[in-house]
User: What shape does this take?
Amino acid sequence: MENSRYPKFTFTWLGAVTLVVGLFVGTMAVSLFSTFWKVVFKENLELKDWFLMVANSVGFLTAIAFLTFLL
Assistant: This one.
């Protein structure tokens, strides 16, 4: 098991902060896109059925990406 090609990772407070920051950045990106869409196209995307799924997916994926690629 010592020759594993996967590095050992210990989840610390830095990992938790990275996850929260990644979630915040992803959520802000979706919010800014939604605001842009409201201003330019005069249509509220937040009332669509799929918007909540997309917003959560983007938020969690950016949190995972931040944890994976920044630490």
